[in-house]
Structures are given as C-alpha cells and as structure tokens.
Specification:
This protein is of the alpha+beta class and 219 residues long. The protein has 7 helices and 8 strands, in the order E-E-H-E-H-E-H-H-H-H-H-E-E-E-E. Strand 7 (202-208) and strand 8 form a beta hairpin.
Length: 219
C-alpha cells in the first residue's frame, strides 16, 4: 500500500513503474505508457515462450546452431553443435543474459527465429500487452522492437508466477555443462541488486545503445 505521506521518489529513467504484483496496483508511475527500446528485458518473453513448449521437459537436449555462436553481444560461449539442455539454456538466457543461449532457445522452440518471434508477439497479445512488439529473441535495437514500462511490469508479473522462471532469476552465480560434461560454462548474473539486498528475487537487466541501461526488479 502506498504511503501517501511519503515524498515521491525521483528517478532519472525515461520511464518507470512500481506495481504490487499480487493486486497489480500501481504504486508509482512515470511515463509508463511510453514505447521504448527494451534491450535484453526482451529475454523475459523469450524464456516464457520457451517454457510454454518445454516447461515440463526441461531435460530436453538442444543442439547449438552455428547462427547462435556467431551472434554478437553478451554470450555464455556456447560451441557450435554443443548439446545442452533447455534448462541450462534458460539459465544462460536469464542469468548471464546470453544472446547465444537465447538464439539457441529460439531455434529449439520453433523452426526459425522468425517463427519464434511470431510466437513472442502472439504471447504478447494473449497477455494484453498492447504496446509491445518484438522483432528478435535477444533484444537488439530495432524501430519495431519496443515495449512500455507498464507492459514489462505485467509481463514480469506473469513470468514470476512461473516457478521455473522465478527460481532461475534469483540465482546470482552458477555453473552449467553440456550433456557430455565436456563443456563448462560459468554464469554470473547481470543483476547487481541480487546479493546486495536480501529481499531482491530477480528479475532481468538489459543494455543497448538505444535502450540505455534497463531493469526489471522484484522484491
């Protein structure tokens, strides 16, 4: 419940919102309906779409495509043709914000990245995210790739209701391996709030030139 006697917080972000996840009540809002680039906050939706298909089959093994290895930006250093579980790819996507993991998830979930993006946009419609549109599963800047603080709050509220998602985004550091145990990947969270404040339980960061530094946090 918002304490009306307290002074409004002041944030330098272009847009922001604070909601109570249980009631969906808005406690604070500033430009929350503005359409903006969202960088790797995109991966919240990427993970949800993958979980729609693999939620009960996290041990399913995916083969890393060459296209994923070639992707730019943050990576967990997957190898071409490496065989790794969906669960470990989700960890790489959400903890390390790994673009190679997110791209591999897209190929594993749909036949092509374009088809995966179509699933992302369908999911956005299902969730009532009327000011959200995706063009890629990673969060690369694109004029047609955008969301709002309000839509991201709702997306994250739904995501945190998924036990698998919620358990991953609260991890600050872990190690994952391919199915043979030959390839080892150290994952470190990009969310520096984890570990600094004991009640922080997620969620995701994102950074690109156009988006700047972006954050969804849950406490």
């Amino acid at each position: 419940i918002r304490n009306l006697n307290s002074k409004d917080i002041e944030l330098n972000s272009r847009a922001s919102i604070i909601i109570d996840a249980q009631s969906n009540r808005v406690l604070y809002s500033n430009n929350a309906q503005d359409s903006l680039p969202i960088a790797s906050l995109t991966k919240i939706m990427t993970a949800l779409v993958a979980l729609d298909k693999f939620g009960s089959q996290l041990s399913t093994v995916a083969t890393v495509p060459v296209e994923a290895v070639k992707v730019t930006g943050s990576k967990m250093s997957l190898y071409a043709n490496e065989r790794i579980t969906i669960h470990n790819l989700l960890k790489g996507t959400l903890i390390e914000s790994a673009n190679d993991a997110a791209t591999t998830l897209a190929y594993a979930t749909a036949d092509t990245p374009d088809q995966f993006v179509s699933l992302m946009n369908q999911k956005a419609v299902q969730l009532g995210l009327t000011q959200t549109h995706f063009t890629n599963p990673v969060g690369f800047d694109d004029p047609q790739h955008y969301s709002t603080a309000r839509d991201l709050a709702e997306l994250s509220r739904v995501a945190m209701e998924n036990e698998i998602f919620a358990n991953i985004v609260k991890i600050s550091k872990t190690t994952v391996k391919d199915v043979s145990g030959k390839f080892v990947h150290q994952l470190n969270t990009t969310n520096k709030l984890l570990g600094q404040f004991e009640n922080v339980i997620g969620v995701k960061t994102g950074t690109t030139d156009e988006a700047g530094e972006s954050l969804v946090a849950a406490v």
